[in-house]
């Protein structure tokens, strides 16, 4: 970005040769106009058919500086980023430069709030999760198949997505925009063969007390294909633990980013840069990108940059907290410029970063640190940065910062900045973005040497119930392989008893027992905010035996639990599949 800008305060100057120009506040007496939606200086156009003191129709005169301006490179730059120049756009840009018009398109306002999506929200665990989150003041959105049932149960004003995880066409990702976290309580429906009461009293007792059968879609459709569909729908909204790679990666270094040089030639300067791929330039001996060139202050220039062409579809980075650059420094200060509009001459969101000479380093640039800048001036009234609508990226080495400040590391001459990757990142400590309610027993149906007669009904009847536990395990595996920060909760038999009993958290899929649905809902909500719950899979039950009911004295309720104590004791990587000795579950 140039510090030289034509604005409403820039006087239009008469020129003795019959042309026109505008003054710019760069500390020097410059002249410039905007052409083709970009600023350049100092050139003058003059009408033809005049005396010798005036220019011919095609003549362009360069003032200030000792080096000639490369108009050919200027035109190539113009063509590379915007295609064939549009004469009407050129005229509009010239007029706006002298009238002080604002950019043609203002950046969109950022969509805020960390919405939690609750799926299976009309079920026994899901509706309790909704209730707890509401009491905490957390904004929620729910996914349900039946609108009438959802609104009657959760209220007429509930933020509702009507959809079915078994039907991918109902899960348009645009419905999930703004969602940062998910509690998934969707489960295949199991009910009594002989039927149930209107309020499902038999179901609430658990399948230990009735002969079960699958009601509705199969376990494969709900637990496996449904999980695939849900992950695909929310993945861009909730983000990935390793971040979203925008540039870099073995065999895909350039990705979908098309880089081009954008130097001070657009304002009459002579600096020149380029983007290259170095096949063995990275710190691991692999390929890397390279921003290099020569910068000069001749002709009142002083910056070089490489910029991507506008993305075909804007990148939605709203799930992330910033952009990380992996660079090999040269001791200079550079800029990252992120744009949220397809217009050329509009606000850019900028952060400067320093580098250490000769060292590979990770530069983290939080979105919150980006400054809105337009024509080298900060714009305090500009809309906040909209991470959901990123349209291009730019790296710059410049003499100027903005608002008249200078780059303290600037020197003329050769420079180069290798960069091996650009990715969006999630701030640490990372907390779960997907909390999934599964079931204890998912690894047991095919476990060698297991006495099924001593196992819960769902384990014994796995095949009769459409391989329900096998598909629950396959759904879990999809989550673990997705890259989404997750927690998988495996409750033992669910009851309608109140929360508050003492609990046992375990791993390895070995315990049996019961647990309150209310308790499971509380665990899920607590996990959403816990870095200690990330990438943990665990079973949970109460210490109260099946044969004993658990009741709470309303006048003396049990104290609220600190679930962090349990989360901290859990380990990553333990799923119970270890006992299968590497043998995949059979369907």
TrEMBL record:
Residues in NADH:ubiquinone oxidoreductase intermediate-associated protein domain copies: 259-409
Source domain of life: Eukaryota
Residues covered by the NAD(P)-binding domain: 120-233, 432-531
SUPFAM superfamilies the UniProt entry points to: Galactose-binding domain-like (SSF49785), NAD(P)-binding Rossmann-fold domains (SSF51735)
InterPro entries: Galactose-bd-like_sf, NAD(P)-bd_dom, NAD(P)-bd_dom_sf, NADH-UbQ_OxRdtase-assoc_prot30
PANTHER family reported in the protein's UniProt record: FLAVIN REDUCTASE-RELATED (PTHR15020), UPF0659 PROTEIN YMR090W (PTHR15020:SF50)
Protein name: NADH:ubiquinone oxidoreductase intermediate-associated protein 30 domain-containing protein
Organism listed in the record: Oryza meyeriana var. granulata
